[in-house]
Amino acid sequence: MLKFENCSIGHDRTLYEIPELELRRGEFVALIGANGSGKSTLMDSLVQGKFPDGKVSIEGRNWIDLKLMERAHQITLVDNHFLGFDYLKVSEYLELGRHSYTNFTGRLTAEDRLVVQKYIQILHLDSLLGQSTSTLSDGERQRVGIAKALIQETPIILLDEPTAFLDYPTKREVMSLLGQIAAESNRMVMIASHDIDFCIEYCSRILIIEKDSKILRSYQAITHDELVTKAFGI
Ligand SMILES: Nc1ncnc2c1ncn2[C@@H]1O[C@H](COP(=O)(O)OP(=O)(O)OP(=O)(O)O)[C@@H](O)[C@H]1O
Question: What is the DSSP string of 127-177?
């Protein structure tokens, strides 16, 4: 569904190349690389539709030709930058997930509300709905962020370090949930992560930004030691 051909990734200089890569629905993909190697840059480039060269296509359509709203219906990014606002309740924040589907009034339809309600149930968020988004714990904020991404109902979900700051059981819970979402709702879920052992355990595919070659390569199965050598050169 998401295909890269001869792409260079980087802002003002090339950080690495993606010669050829095709990601499919149902896959739970980990993106691994050293600090500053360009994991967030790839996610940002996808959301913004900015690739200096090469070709990225989704379901056969050239990604850079899609309008902003068309891209918003295809892809969602959950990052760790949102720390909440005192005035924004969890329920209101989740409703923003339907924003790209509403008309100019911004009002949700009954159908939109059903979608929001569905993911509130799946992620067990009932007890948090009236709480201010600025008061959530890291684990709660992560679950709320994932719910908002699901509410957007895009076939591609990108999460930048979704397990950062979480305790051990919550990391397991989030990884298992993301794998389930990919498989059961037929979406492609990609995470950037430094939790390499969790990625090996839970993800169906590992993408490594290789330190020596500066090439992004895909692995279906890889050991901890092989991964460390390829990603960090040690
Ligand atoms: N807007 C920007 N303009 C120019 N350079 C940028 C910009 N954003 C990031 N960079 C640079 O691009 C490189 C890759 O950064 P990026 O955040 O993608 O790495 P990362 O792999 O996600 O790192 P980490 O694991 O530390 O989060 C870094 O050298 C960074 O300084």
Answer: GGTTSBGGG--HHHHHHHHHHHHHHTT-SEEEEESTTTT--HHHHHHHHHH
**Domain positions in the chain:** 26-49+67-232
pTM equals 0.92
Fold adopted by 26-49+67-232: Rossmann fold (3.40.50)
Q: Which two tokens stand for residue 190?
A: 């990609």
Of the segments 39-53, 81-95, 176-190, 196-210, which one has the largest average pLDDT value? 196-210
Atom 6 of ligand 1, nearest CA residue: 11
Q: Report which protein residue has its CA nearest ligand 1's atom 28.
A: 36
The minimum-distance atom of ligand 1 relative to the CA of 192 is 22
Give the E-state strand segments of the chain in sequence order: 2-9, 16-23, 28-32, 55-58, 61-62, 75-78, 156-160, 188-192, 205-209, 216-219
Specify the DSSP element, H or E, that contains 69: helix 68-72
